[in-house]
Write a structure and sequence with these properties.
Layout: H1 11-48
Length: 56
């Protein structure tokens, strides 16, 4: 099955998608990943105690 020539994404649509990824999606994913890692460390410290030598 051959794709019609009209199915090709336009340059403007590609540019908008690129800008959305760079301006919105990647920064939000970065904040979510760093926040999730920090939350994980915080929860682990509640169960295992703070880092450092034991009994110090």
């Amino acid at each position: 099955m051959h794709a019609a020539p009209d199915d090709k994404p336009s340059k403007g649509k590609e540019t908008r998608l690129f800008l959305f990824l760079v301006i919105c999606l990647f920064p939000l994913l970065s904040v979510a990943l760093v926040g999730g890692y920090g939350f994980f460390i915080w929860i682990m410290q509640m169960f295992l105690g703070p880092p450092g030598p034991p009994g110090g």
